[in-house]
Fold this protein.
Amino acid sequence: MINKLKPALVGGLIAGILCVIPFVSTCCCIWAALGGFLASFMYIKSSPAPVTTGEGAIVGLMTGAIGSVIYLFIQIPLALLFGLASMEEAFQRSGVELPVGGIALVLLSAFLVVVLILVFCTVGGLVGVPIFEKRKGAQPPPPPQDFGTAPGGPYGTGL
């Protein structure tokens, strides 16, 4: 689990921060998939054994969780300070009546983005494994020659 944490932190940092930057965040799903993709690449390079797609999905999901937390810690205060009035004004000008408003609208939109980050980071982790994992037929190294023998020789101590 520890060797999955470092790639997930790096990928989650990329996904979380790039999903908050104003003009860059229009490609939020791409940045989330890129974060999962990068995390699976880093995990494959550090893993001594071949990596399965399930492990890639786990690394991607961890990346999405970290990216989501980063996104929430940055986006919710910014939206409450600067974006709440502009969001409500934009909906009123377009003629759309929403059943929720104010803080509930900010939380609902943040929840939607968190779900997208989780899904696309997991997809990025899944896609990265077949692309980067080249050790499909690699066999583990054979055990040492004296593996499984008793300390006194191949037949034991001879009691």
Summary: The chain has four helices and no strands.
